[in-house]
Amino acid sequence: MKTGDGTLSQDTRYVTELRRDMLRFAGLQLRDEQLAEDVVQEALMAALTGEKNFSARSALKTWVFAILRNKIVDAIRQRSRTINVSALAQEDESIDQAFEALFKPNAHWQPQSRPRAWGDPEAALHQEQFWLAFDACLKHLPENTARVFMMREFLEFDTVEVCAELNISTSNCHVILHRAREGLRRCLEQTWFSPGEQPC
Fold first, then answer.
1. Average pLDDT over the chain, rounded to whole?
2. Cβ(180)–Cβ(148) below 8 Å
3. Are 200 and 149 in contact (CB under 8 A)?
4. Cβ-proximal residues to 132 (8 Å cutoff; 6+ apart), any chain
5. Do 163 and 173 contact (CB within 8 A), yes or no?
6. What pLDDT band is residue 154 in, cutting at 50, 70 and 90?
7. What residues have CB less than 8 Å from 99, skipping those under 6 apart?
8. Rounded to the nearest 5 degrees, what angle is found at the Cα of 48, between the Cα atoms of 34 and 72?
9. Which of 102, 173, 176, 200 is deepest in the core (most CB within 10 A)?
10. How many Cα atoms sit within 13 Å of 141 on the Cβ side?
11. Residue 83, Cα to own-chain centre: how many angstroms?
12. What is the crossing angle of helices 33-49 and 60-79, to 10°?
């Protein structure tokens, strides 16, 4: 498996940088530093053990992250059975209060809360700074709300599976996902799409 200077097992600098990115990604998904360390270690060991099977049809980093994704999915499935469902209800209440201020009684936007034009989102997606801002906004979501969002959008669980794993209803899942997306939209408008603002 070739990197810049040899095989994955030989290129220690590349592995160090790769591990840093993997820890960042796993930390965002799992919100548990020790668990993130564990899954990254498992993913790296699996990559090193299976490097002879790497077909080079995809980028090395993509291949390693696919392994990491599977480890994260396994960890979430094991842990999510013990999720505090009452915590989701508490988050619902706090998010409800925050969102009530965005709308008039007739359900139309308050003038100051109306979504702004985002320019060219496709170009923004190619900018590393955008993802730094996105990560910062993601960290500001309530923990369980972020977990539902990441299971559905990052790890590609289908809605039925998210509901089964977290013991929540489909309608509750949709509400949580809507609130997560709305929270990210509001944060990104303040940190990325408004000139001169710094990340959250």
1. 75
2. yes
3. no
4. 199
5. yes
6. confident
7. 179, 182
8. 35
9. 176
10. 28
11. 18
12. 130
Domain spans of the chain, in order of start: 12-80, 83-191
Whole-number Å distance between alpha carbons of 146 and 29: 8
pLDDT above 80 for 153: yes
Half-sphere exposure of 92 (CA within 13 A, CB side): 14
Q: In 3D, which of 78, 15, 59, 11 has the Cα closest to residue 41?
A: 15
Q: Which one-letter DSSP state was computed for residue 198?
A: P
Distance CA 100, CA 80 (A): 29
pTM exceeds 0.85: no
Q: Alpha helix locations (H) across 31-169?
A: 33-49, 60-79, 85-100, 121-125, 128-139, 143-149, 159-166
Task: State how far the Cα of 61 lies from the Cα of 192, in Å rounded to an integer.
Answer: 26
Tell which wins on pLDDT, 69 or 98. 69
Residue 154, Cα to own-chain centre: how many angstroms? 5
Tell which CATH architecture fits domain 12-80: Orthogonal Bundle (1.10)
Average pLDDT of the segment spanning 146-161: 85
Span 23-47, pLDDT tens digits: 988 887 787 899 999 999 999 999 8
